[in-house]
Design brief:
With 148 residues, the chain is α+β, with helices and mostly antiparallel strands. It has a single domain, classed as Lipocalin (Beta Barrel). Helix content is 19%, strand content 51%. The protein has two helices and nine strands; from the N terminus they run αββββββαβββ. The protein has an eight-stranded antiparallel β-barrel with strand order 1-3-4-5-6-7-8-9. The longest helix is centred in the first third of the chain and has 21 residues.
């Protein structure tokens, strides 16, 4: 009888820990929401060498929802329309965006590079998507703040 009770208690413990593990997120990142570009960094030897702030009405907004990403850019100095839509995944601290459709100027870039991969650095209300060069060094980053 004691053996049966111990086996049942052991099974209940295993089930409880298994259920608890299912509720633990596998990635600490959550991009769901609306984000606005605040500035960009340029790097030399993985150190920030320059910061470019948005000026004269320039705006860029990204929206992430349920594995989908959409972004739009407005630059009063540029008559081109800039926007894109696609899917995204986050794996091992890397953000991968796959554009499915985009504005004319962006489609020229998408035709040659449809998948965009960035290192992702995130806090509760901001994130950086850092582009890496062919040697794996930081090239530039876009730095966003959550707006919704």
């Amino acid at each position: 009888m004691k053996t049966l009770v111990l086996i049942l208690l052991g099974m209940c413990s295993i089930l409880a820990f298994t259920e608890m593990d299912k509720t633990t997120p596998t990635e600490p990142y959550n991009l769901e929401g609306v984000w606005e570009l605040k500035h960009q960094f340029f790097y030399e030897n993985n150190e920030v060498s320059d910061t470019i702030f948005n000026q004269n009405g320039y705006r860029q907004v990204k929206m992430y929802s349920k594995g989908k990403v959409m972004w739009a850019r407005f630059d009063p100095k540029d008559s081109n329309e800039w926007f894109g839509y696609g899917t995204y995944v986050i794996k091992d601290g890397m953000l991968e965006e796959r554009l499915e459709m985009a504005s004319g100027p962006m489609m020229k870039i998408v035709d040659t590079m449809q998948v965009f991969i960035f290192e992702l650095v995130m806090s509760d209300n901001s994130f950086q998507q850092i582009a890496l060069d062919e040697e794996g060094k930081y090239s530039n980053s876009e730095n966003y703040d959550r707006i919704e």
